[in-house]
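SEQUENCE-TO-STRUCTURE ENTRY
===========================
Question of interest: how does this chain fold, as expressed in backbone structure tokens?
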Amino acid sequence: MTAPDAAPAPGSLPDRPLDLLGVGVGPANLSLAALAQPLPGLTAAFYERRPTFRWHPGLLIDGATLQVPFLADLVTLVDPTSRHSFLNYLRHTGRLFPFYFAERLHPDRAEYDAYCRWVSERLPGLHFRHQVDAVRWNPEHEVFDVDVTRLGADGEVEAVLRRHARHLVIGIGTAPHLPEVMRPLAEAATVPVCHSADYLDHRERLLAAEHVTVVGAGQSGAEIVLDLLRHRPAGRERLAWLARTPAFAPMEYSKLGLEHFTPDYTRYFHALPEAVRDHLVERQWQLHRAIDHETLAALHDELYRRTVAGEWPDVLLTPGVSVRTAGRVGTTRLELHLDHVEQGERSRLTTSALVLATGYRERPLDPLLTTLNSVVRRDASGRPSIDAHYRLDLAPEVSGSVYVQNAERHTHGVGAPDLGLLAHRSATILNSLTGERRYPVSRRAAFTTFGLRRPSEGKEGSRAPRTEVAEVHVPAQLKRAAFRSM
């Protein structure tokens, strides 16, 4: 990847526009930049409004680990020889032998953050403190005009720039989700209320609170409950953990279950009708919104240890409940009105601090692509159509491509945000962008045959034999929905 020259003045066009301009520098676009870097002649630049790379800084809790092995770094699964691998990072930081002797498959989350920052500091073409404001298609020059604001150390505007690129890749990631009924609580300055994404910023106030409630039964919620439990006195824990899911369920982590995070399953999912895909994503919550076994075991161990003295810990763990409404009680307390789905009963819970481990939502692309909205083709639900190469389906008059990263769960399935598919997605984008097979992309990665069409075997690039199918059973309600979208 060749770093671009200095920016031209707004309104002008350089002799050679960028081949690729990236919006956002999270793990997804960092992976793409790392794999693009050794490709000769490819000019690329990536812009990020933050001052430096940070990955979920509010959740870098001591001892919290990734849910994917270290091989699922930015590059290794498509290029094990890359100098941007996690193992090369360990070698450069003098910790390769300690890591080897530790026999650890899953690195600490803080270590992954440090590794990504190390890669970001070694790559040309990454521009932090640069905010992309608008994107337009320039039909005369067949490039995208991209308006960028350079920010100072305090976030003030230093300069307004214009870049030009033949293709774009948008990796703006996800944003913390606050359920509508609990958004007003975040304004209660006298009561600690935060999303799990900001947990460490509020941790001291939470530990000092008389009673703490955590809402949400995913991995983040479990890690926060465990951290609070470990640091609150025995017998006076005063913790509540509530979840809508019917159980504090373990993540599906069997070897065959994990094959849902392979390119094979992604290809299968992408070819399904829209209504079937939407139905599947909702059913597969245990693949990506549950809790790893080690965290659940550590929680149970900590709770059990506190019963040795003969008393049960003052901890309420209740799945199967939803928060119907919520409000303040005076200046120091909150009241949550709860519905229990299975019992059909209602109750109230008073607490003095609240952590909302309520997940994330994909940031909408429309505000960034306002001038392109009319040429973006959409599905029956109004979401952008995204092809198998992670490219927005645009009208023919736009010859440039707009790729997306971690904005395609509705078209590519539960693996969209998974770190284990970062390198594969980056390789797919680069192969599509260059029109060449710059990186080998495995034709088969799973033992499972998803659907009734068998995967290819043998040499890479061979076509899979097709199996003619008389009928594939789809639930009647999904058939009706699928026909409405045609």
Residues 109-122 form the longest helix (14 residues). The first strand starts at residue 18 and ends at 23.
